[in-house]
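ok so I'm stuck.
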Amino acid sequence: FKPDLFGSDSRYFIHAMIEDENAFAQRTYYKLEDKAHLFSILEGPSVREKSSWNLSFYFGPKELSAIGSVDKRLEQTLDYSGILSSLAKMMLYLLNWLYKYLENYGYAIIVLT
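replied:
not stuck anymore, here's the structure
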């Protein structure tokens, strides 16, 4: 199949292809080596002449402000993408807002609770 979103994520970072404008990726899969290294593989067509494709990737932190401006589908990689996601997003926004003024997450959590 031709994926429109493909990649992998860890606890803190996302590595993903978010757009394949010219349908370059014809097959995607993961390869696990030594039970410690996971590779995301994109395979395209055989190239016999000079060609170009436009692909967009996101390589960065799992921060709502960063991924929200890139592609909303990346929010599904966050741990709060379930039924209570709107409540969790609101609480995270409030926590970060409190942190701006208190400059200490410990105090911000106490005030939030």
